[in-house]
Fold:
Amino acid sequence: MRAAQCGRPHSQKIEACHAILTRPIGETSMRLLTLSLFLAIAALMTLADPGSAQSPTSYPWCSRGTKGVPGNCYYASKEQCQRTISGNGAYCIRNPWFQESARGRARTR
Structure:
């Protein structure tokens, strides 16, 4: 890089360009390696499937807690949900994301 390309007053141009031109080669290659690794990890993270962490089975009932207590949607029946949450101030609701599987629909017909 030439001093005229640095875009600063003349004395600062010379100092800045000298710093750029005399930078150790190992430092530049290490920066490139770090940047390459960062970009590779970012690309791999975008390929991850967030849905794979969910249960393959969908259940029709959910519990909902009160006062910041989280609930869950792993109940096959309303009675099972009510027995589980009995006494802890939570309540049961139908799972708004429930999708009955094709096997489940075939059995209930």
Notes: The mean pLDDT is 74. The chain is about 45% helix and 5% strand.
